[in-house]
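User: My advisor asked me to double-check a structure prediction for DnaT DNA-binding domain-containing protein before group meeting. I don't want to rely on an old file, so could you generate it fresh from this sequence?
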Amino acid sequence: MSKGYKAPGRRAYEQDKPLFQIMDEGGDDSPTHPVFAENREVREGARVQPLPEDFEPDSRYIQFLQLHHGIPPEFTLGQLPDFKLYWLETGEARKAWQNRFKNHVIYQWRRQQSEGGRESHRSTAEKLTDTSWSDAYRIDLDED
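Assistant: Sure, here is a fresh prediction for DnaT DNA-binding domain-containing protein from the sequence you gave:
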């Protein structure tokens, strides 16, 4: 900071102190934001942990996906094996596994919906040899 500039709300003697240090020295009249409180309560579910072997999606999430995204419960439950296989293999520790699963299902649903018109279930050979497009055209080669 230049010497002639006084930051708004800061006293002149505070100009060379970092803002977080000034806020900590604020005294009783400055409320502490809960994020910065020293004795923040940590909920049990907020722990970082690897995916439990017996992970199952909570029924509330299955209902949420159906009501808000139109995703059938069968599709949601069908995503579970791939989800578990991946996360159990990586062994990465995360928080909020239910929410992560929900986001995975939404991603896979949207992906499937966008690929629906592309006939992604067909092999490359089937796609290359498909002549069904020609059914709409009639070519008369007999010019009489």
